[in-house]
């Protein structure tokens, strides 16, 4: 299941990026499961990666290559995460980069590898290496839609977003893809995200932009609280629109570009929640007027991870007591229960430490029947606000994750 | 569903305790849903209560009465938690104590009230007050079995444990009840627990015994990470066996008594996990050789709460990568991945940062097919160990919690 509009947006090509999507048959014969991005020379590349201590071999190698060389290729396979695979996993990730570099006549450390799928199994290197020679002739500028499908695992739909805007007479494009539906509580990035622009952006500025916008997008979603071993998000600036230059945060284009990028990143992150495993609801948990950002996030995630809140959402049950109980067990400093107020969309459900006087079950039911629901928690104790996006906990979530490996 | 032996143990009466179980029809007409314990004069009474900030009105009032007076009665209703009910909830809890005190000819603050059931609805006081006069004539010494059923909510079976032991020629009895199946991650106590002994124990020693043994029993279980608003656990020493005296931790009987009490408390706590909502597995998560108790608990709970680990357990799928990913995202200081080892029962699944060389899928499958499974995580970095008990995440969990209020 999934929520919202299933249709993929128009994805504008980004000058300086070519994409090839081919079949290596890693998990399923014939499936288009191998995606390669070719980046123009002198592109700036920034990355954010999982904080899971058991990060996968490709994550370790991508971080190393990104720090060493000028990146020209991203190679992504689905069907196998190459995580928890020890030394063999690192050998396989390196061999993948070396073979693609050989074909494309670049150095191996100019290739960043990414893998997603089952944890703990070795990559089928014979099939992967056999497919790499197919990549070169399949590179096209208009390959974003095929790539969005090519990186899917338990996703039920491809995810992409694209924006074009005029700035001082120049048209700037930003286009991105994301994937992910389960094992989703990103910590620096989503499962996988690839975003490119044709603007000219200095590497350190690009890294700052990615870190900041990922924090307020991919790092604010959770399906099931399980941070993946493979989360990676890459932002590329190909520099093909030579007049659109961002060398520092003081450049006038910076704020405009950042706002567009942030909107696109949120769109890609929310798409993961809308396609969350078994999702029937898209839920925004907004915490307002908390003492600190940390406190606001702790409350928001405690509510967003509560199995009892999530099953009530699945049941369209306005069981507001479960929301109150989750707020009450959040690991925060003491606060004034009587000042706190909780709303379902515009319906106040809790005030003065108990059920709101104005609340009626019919009003609560009316909100819970909606597909998109906002749980708003006003702490009335400070000025910090945070929003986290999540899905409900349904039978399909259990089915998908009880059957995924079989 | 539930795991383990469904039969209730023999529950020995405790001299100085009489119990009455009657019907108030709070949620279901005719259901025996009101339980009253009568304690002998001069009994010592200790309590531990939820740390959920939205603790229910009866929890607040019980804590107050316990600090004020010599307790003679515990009154427990199921079907309604009287939580999130604001001022009216406190009025209702007080009225319940006052009416029972009037009938029994004691002071109102000699009565401790307990409620369990749906959060956020007012108690049906007319039905509750009408039933209280039935209590007095129904008091019996041999009422533990009926009481165990009387306090159930979504529990599928009554839970009790009892031990008798000889000490210096005297027979000492400890008998206890617990209830709970969902909204279970106790923080000081389980949903509800009532334990009594006929020994003579000084109040401060009794409180210390309860706090310490609850920490290693009810505070080490989790079904769904949701700490209840109503968790309460009461330990009573009626002092009827006058030769069995514990006035301090130096009394020879102290260590013997404490060990028996700890065993009984663990038994009652594990019974909650065996009856966890939708449970098909009883899972012990043991963390060994961690740097600190806090670190060991953080790792154990991260694994025990992971929806992906829990659905893999439900599916009997030896998907050890999900366990490794959960350990990797635990919020602890950096550690040496290569030293860590993870076992399913006696099968080593992870060592040297990846799948153990000796591991075979058949061995893993053999363990996962069992009903009782131990996940053992050896951090090889310190001397602290902790064990947490949990259940799996099944379709029945979702069904129970999506349908509970309807």
From TrEMBL, chains A, B:
Pathway: Amino-acid biosynthesis; L-arginine biosynthesis; L-ornithine and N-acetyl-L-glutamate from L-glutamate and N(2)-acetyl-L-ornithine (cyclic): step 1/1; Amino-acid biosynthesis; L-arginine biosynthesis; N(2)-acetyl-L-ornithine from L-glutamate: step 1/4. Gene3D superfamilies: ArgJ beta chain, C-terminal domain, L-amino peptidase D-ALA esterase/amidase. The keyword S-adenosyl-L-methionine does not apply. It catalyses: N(2)-acetyl-L-ornithine + L-glutamate = N-acetyl-L-glutamate + L-ornithine; L-glutamate + acetyl-CoA = N-acetyl-L-glutamate + CoA + H(+). Pfam families: ArgJ. The active site is at 190 (nucleophile). The record marks 189-190 as: Cleavage. It is found in: Cytoplasm. Keywords: Acyltransferase, Amino-acid biosynthesis, Arginine biosynthesis, Autocatalytic cleavage, Cytoplasm, Multifunctional enzyme, Transferase. It comes from the Bacteria. The record marks 116-117 as: Involved in the stabilization of negative charge on the oxyanion by the formation of the oxyanion hole. Substrate binds at residues 153, 179, 190, 277, 401, 406. Catalyzes two activities which are involved in the cyclic version of arginine biosynthesis: the synthesis of N-acetylglutamate from glutamate and acetyl-CoA as the acetyl donor, and of ornithine by transacetylation between N(2)-acetylornithine and glutamate. Belongs to the ArgJ family. PANTHER family: ARGININE BIOSYNTHESIS BIFUNCTIONAL PROTEIN ARGJ (PTHR23100), ARGININE BIOSYNTHESIS BIFUNCTIONAL PROTEIN ARGJ, MITOCHONDRIAL (PTHR23100:SF0). This is Arginine biosynthesis bifunctional protein ArgJ. It comes from Litoribacillus peritrichatus.
């Amino acid at each position: 299941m999934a929520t919202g509009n299933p249709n993929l947006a128009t994805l504008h090509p980004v000058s300086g990026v070519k994409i090839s999507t081919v079949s290596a048959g890693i998990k399923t014969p014939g499936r288009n499961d191998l995606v390669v991005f070719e980046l123009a020379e002198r592109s700036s590349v920034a990355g954010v990666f999982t904080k899971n201590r058991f990060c996968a071999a490709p994550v370790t190698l991508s971080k190393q290559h990104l720090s060493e060389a000028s990146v020209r290729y991203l190679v992504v396979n689905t069907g196998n995460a190459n995580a928890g695979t020890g030394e063999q996993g690192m050998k396989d990730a390196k061999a993948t980069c070396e073979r693609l570099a050989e074909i494309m006549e670049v150095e191996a450390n100019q290739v960043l590898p990414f893998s997603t799928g089952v944890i703990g199994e070795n990559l089928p290197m014979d099939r992967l290496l056999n497919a790499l020679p197919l990549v070169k002739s399949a590179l096209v500028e208009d390959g974003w839609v095929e790539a969005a499908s090519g990186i899917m695992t338990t996703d039920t739909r491809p995810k992409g977003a694209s924006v074009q805007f005029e700035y001082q007479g120049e048209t700037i494009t930003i286009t991105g893809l994301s994937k992910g539906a389960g094992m989703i509580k990103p910590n620096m990035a989503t499962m996988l995200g690839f975003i490119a622009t044709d603007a000219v952006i200095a590497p350190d500025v690009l890294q700052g932009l990615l870190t900041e916008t990922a924090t307020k997008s991919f790092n604010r979603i959770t399906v099931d609280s399980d941070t993946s071993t493979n989360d990676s998000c890459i932002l590329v600036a190909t520099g093909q629109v030579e007049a659109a230059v961002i060398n520092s945060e003081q450049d006038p284009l910076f704020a405009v570009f950042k706002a567009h990028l942030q909107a696109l990143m949120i769109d890609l992150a929310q798409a993961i929640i809308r396609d969350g495993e078994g999702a029937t609801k898209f839920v925004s948990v907004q915490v307002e007027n908390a003492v600190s950002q940390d406190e606001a996030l702790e409350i928001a995630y405690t509510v967003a991870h509560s199995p009892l809140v999530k099953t009530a959402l699945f049941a369209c049950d306005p069981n507001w007591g479960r929301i109150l109980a989750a707020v009450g067990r959040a690991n925060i400093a003491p606060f004034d229960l009587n000042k706190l107020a909780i709303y379902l969309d515009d319906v106040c459900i809790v005030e003065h430490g108990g059920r709101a006087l104005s609340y009626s079950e019919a009003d609560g039911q009316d909100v819970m029947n909606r597909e998109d629901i906002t749980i708003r928690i006003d702490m009335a104790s400070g000025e910090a606000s945070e929003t986290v996006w999540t899905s409900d906990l349904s039978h399909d979530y259990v089915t998908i994750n009880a059957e995924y490996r079989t």
